[in-house]
Amino acid sequence: MLTKRIIPCLDIRNGRVVKGKNFKNVNDVEDPVKMAAFYDENGADELVFYDITASVDERPLFTDILKKVASQIFIPLTVGGGINTLDDFDRVLKAGADKVSVNSGAVKDPSLINKAAKRYGDQCVVLSMDVARVDGKYHVFTKGGRFDSGIDALQWAKMGEENGAGEIVLNSIDTDGVKKGFDLEMLYDLSKVVSIPIIASGGAGGKEDFLELFRLEGIDAGLAASIFHFREVSIKELKTFLKNNKVPVRTVG
Question: In this structure, is residue 89 part of a structural domain?
């Protein structure tokens, strides 16, 4: 049985790790290089690095910080923010990324997913979706959650899989930073339309939320920021709890 992955997320703005709520009210947290090293040492299975203002600022991702972060860790690193072309893929991979996360760039050019999968392999391409409910439907948002594309998220996910995305990160804007649990309804609906791995993001408030998450079929990983950043839950503590509840996880040293 495949182990479930626990993935901290570093949202980067102006060279610092930040965290907000519902993609708003963003506050400073920590130096990303220091935080990446901490997570590498403390049992994270992977790490996600998002340059959260690259798309809205219409600029390339800051690779200088990325290189420093990559040099500190030995776990897989997924990188996103301002990924619009194959050249952007190439640049962040050369800076130390193992996988590249694309959102706004794929909405602008849906062929980007397929072109990247053919050049770098499906395992390298992560379709990241920032999703919120609009009139009872799931809409894909772009520009760091600022713009409603009007695209149906479930149809978009299916298209992403068909075009070669190796996994999907579902960021629920509705539950982001609220700490009352992952968006299980949205995740369940997504799991019924795709077969590639799903990483759940948005809403983790405690160990029990991960247990509830992994009771859903088709969910491969849980991504969180606040509870790890502010030491509310340690990854080692979380994995011990999950293992005791018969959830398969990679043990911490």
Answer: yes
Range of the domain at 209: 5-244
pLDDT in tens, 27-48: 666 889 999 999 999 999 999 9
List, as one string, the DSSP characters of 191-239: HTT--S-EEEES---SHHHHHHHHTSTTEEEEEESHHHHTTSS-HHHHH
Block residue for tokens 């149906």: 152
In the structure encoding, which two tokens stand for residue 68, read together? Answer: 């420093």
Alpha helix (H) ranges present in 102-203?
Answer: 104-108, 111-120, 153-162, 184-191
**pTM confidence score:** 0.92
At 173, is the secondary structure helix, strand, or coil?
coil
The helices-and-strands tally (H runs, E runs) of the chain is: 11, 12
Q: Which residues are catalytic?
A: 11, 130
Number of domains the chain is built from: 1
Judge whether 253 lies within some domain. no
Q: What is the DSSP letter of 123?
A: G
3-state DSSP call for residue 49? strand
